[in-house]
Design goal:
This protein is α/β, with parallel strands linked by helices. 45% of the residues lie in helices and 14% in strands. The protein has 2 domains: 177 residues, 3-Layer(aba) Sandwich (D-Maltodextrin-Binding Protein, domain 2); 239 residues, D-Maltodextrin-Binding Protein, domain 2 (3-Layer(aba) Sandwich). Helix 2 runs antiparallel to helix 17.
Amino acid sequence: MKRILGLLFVVILAVTLVACNDNEAELTSIKVLGNFDTFDPQKDYVSTLIKEVTGIDVEYEFLPQDSTADAKLYLDIAGRAQYHLLKLSSTQFNQLRGVGALLDIKPLLEKHGKNILSSVDEQIWGTTTFDGKIYAVPQKNPTNNINSALFLRKDIFVKNNIDLPETLTEFKEAMIELKTKEGSNFVPFSASSHNIEPIRGAFGIVTDWVPQTDGSVKYWAETPQFEAYASYIKELVDAGVMQEGYLTVPGYGSSSRPGLQNGTVAVTLDAWWSGNGIINGIASSLGKTEQEIYENGSTYLHFIPSLKGDANYPLSTAGKGQSKMDYSVTYFFAIPAYMSDYAVEVIKFMDKKLEEDNFKKLTIGTEGVHHEVIDGKYYPILTPDAANNIPFDMMNKADYFLTGTDADKYAQYWEARARKNPRQQFVWESMNTEELKTTFGIYDKLGLAPGFQIYGSNVAKLTDLAKIYLELRITGGNSGTHQQLIDKLRTDAKLVEATTEVNAWYQAN
């Protein structure tokens, strides 16, 4: 990868002098390179809407789905492939910007991008602004959701006269009591990961970079709370309340969701978008309709975005917990430096899509046709039309066609997607009440950071070393000491250099 980037740097240097000019070439067709997907954008309904509101035909090309995506991107740019617009991840954006491969679009935005400029707040612009130049249009995540939680079968707790737990101690005690009352074939807690954020949150380390009292951030695996978290999960394993084979047998988590559905598991770790299948499964196992379950959902399901710390675990956050809320830039829309002749038309195209009426139409369709507004909230129209098609289904892939968003409006429009399925809607709304967000929700302070050179190149290694240590530590394998892990993170994954790099951005922002 370094060789490819070096080649790219040389090529960009060679073309920069001739690439950056103020010519404006007319465009009737734009070619966009973006992330992999499985549908054909040219045949999608939203593609026809884009042509309708902009007058531009758009051709979409996907990067590979596998690990060769970055290499193809960099080689294509080095070869001056004729892409008018790039849809980039944070790492891709940072790498291309770092070698001068992206066009400064600030002057063009000021002349032709009033809708783009007004749709992005100053803090978000900070992710693509360097030395007074803007190298991409940033697209923030749709809305600030709590995504994951502990899913509890509330009816099983009620049947056994066990209070719903709130703290680390209460959770452990409840799991042990359930094991005793339900018998040996029952699994109190089944999780499909070593990374259980609703428990990490009780130790104040739900984000990978943890704020410190001196104003810096530290990688979570380097903190004493990381070791305390590992010890707590090991306590659950040693108490016999986790599923058999947890972290040791391939496929150990495959029974988690089915167990919650059929009542042989009391607690799982899951995400709100799993609500449809979970409620369908509970209904089937109890011989009830799906509607009976979601209309009486609080009888059957309870959600814990984060446990709270308590005095029995001194390194936990006593009386508090953390649940990470989405707060990040998901994509960066940039123009290759050598395509500057076409940049004015590309910016005009993107700006046209963000005109208020156009933006709504391109994201959730037409009111009364694809969506409706009830009490100021957006709901999808799901009643089949004369051709027996679900109207809102025509907007299923609308997200892929975005080239920037009006973040405030999109947060409201996006809710129509969460409400597309009443079972999913129940879980999402239950997990994202204002009370839960206020009590537990935190933003990842690194969520708006651009891609990092050192950390970006080593994040996979850091993650893998932490994972290996946790799995061995929790299951009683030969993990070595926590200090030995830290030493390995420093020698094998450049943790010291990554920490310096991340803190430089964190302090500045």
